[in-house]
Amino acid sequence: MDTIYPSLVHIVGEGYASFRREELFTYSKDLGTSEPKWPDYVAAPKTAEQVAEILKLANREKVPVVPLGGGMSLAGLALPLKGGIALDLKRMDRIIEVNEKGRYAVVEAGVSHGKLTAYLHNQHPHLMHSEPGAPPAATIGGNLAIHGQGDLAHPYGFNTDMINGMEIVLPTGEICKFGSCAVGAGWFTLHPLPDVGLFLGWNGATGIITKVSLRLFPYKKFREMEIFVVEDENLIPEILYELTHLGLTEDLVAFSSAIPPFSDRLHHVSINVTGDSEAEIELKRRLIFEVKLAKYIESGVGGIAAVSQAIQRPQVSKSADWKKGGGFEYVGSIMPVSAYPECYRRGAEISTRHHIPYTILGRVIGCGHAMMFSWSYAFNRADEKTVRHAREALHETDNIVMDLGGVIWKPAVFGQELLLAKMDVNTLSLMKKIKLLLDPNNIMNPGNWEVD
Ligand SMILES: Cc1cc2nc3c(=O)[nH]c(=O)nc-3n(C[C@H](O)[C@H](O)[C@H](O)COP(=O)(O)OP(=O)(O)OC[C@H]3O[C@@H](n4cnc5c(N)ncnc54)[C@H](O)[C@@H]3O)c2cc1C
Question: Does the reported pTM lie above 0.90?
Fold first, then answer.
């Protein structure tokens, strides 16, 4: 203890390392239902070299290191389950380069999504990145470490499919580059070198992402959102199939929620249409509603909702106060689009049983290749009974995802164990070898993806 703190101060500078309870306090909690877990130290490096020095120190001292971006992933993923150093990466927040014509941005991993969005809006208004629906403080690195997805998931896929290059600090302290940047050719592509990508989706358990080149996409000036509503959940997969076939929408999200009451048991598809002119928007609208969705409208099973504040596509954070007292956590999963009706029915049943208004949402990923499906459970932080209900509902939902043949996304430890128990034995064995090879002293976010 006595040698670690002065060493951290030596690496990151006075004022950026601490072992004081009052400063460790915020690092011991996250926004969800997890019990507090205390780190022994916090350090906030400014550079990849400082990260490397900290990891070397941690290996010498055999002390865990838990990277932290915005801490918005819920599910306890950035909590120091086994103590050690909370590595706060938010100071690594430089936007290094935006290549307008090459459509990419090179950023440090601690850059928040909000910061990148604002920067692009001001400096490069023709470009956008795929921003998750998370609070703006969520970081680029943290989102990639859990395979996040944003508002360009349809048609471009997971945010981790939009990487042109990465810099990673390995658990043993070496700084590695991946992609064209590894051969000094700039940050414009991740391919075609041999694939050595072992870091995405690992929650930092195999290394720390310190720099990323992210693909950018055209930002269209004219934007419109329509909500298509049906009563029968069984229609949602075919509606999404029709719309992804047409391929004219920027974002497609299906959702149902108990609040506001008039939307209860209705199924909404939010359809985002963008264009360079009003005429382009109008053409797309007509193709969507007068051609693709006409049969539902004419047969009276579906219609267009007037978009009001109350019924716009829910940002799941809005459901956080439904129990009053402010708290929510959700299970995310990656599912086939065809699973929507069953996901809705089983999720609504769990919510009802736990006295929580249901919020169920699925965002299309790719050309309908999958859906990120989430079930949110609100609780009142001051009322332990509601927290317990939410926790139980989360666990039951993890089990449902496995039952339905889906994959839990950004699973908490409980969900990670379900997935590892079902994992192909050879794949599991490879994961163990990778972990041991990269992190021989098991210092990196121990307790997460615990494959030993
Ligand atoms: C209301 C709400 C809505 C959300 N909507 C979405 C959404 O639409 N799409 C989506 O993808 N997510 C969503 N999320 C989940 C989450 O907030 C985001 O994925 C967020 O981008 C995670 O980034 P973070 O910086 O907060 O990560 P953190 O919570 O800080 O970290 C996530 C994990 O990655 C590790 N980690 C952090 N930084 C690094 C790094 N640089 N290198 C290696 N490992 C690292 C941490 O140890 C932890 O295990 C939502 C969350 C909330 C609360």
Answer: yes
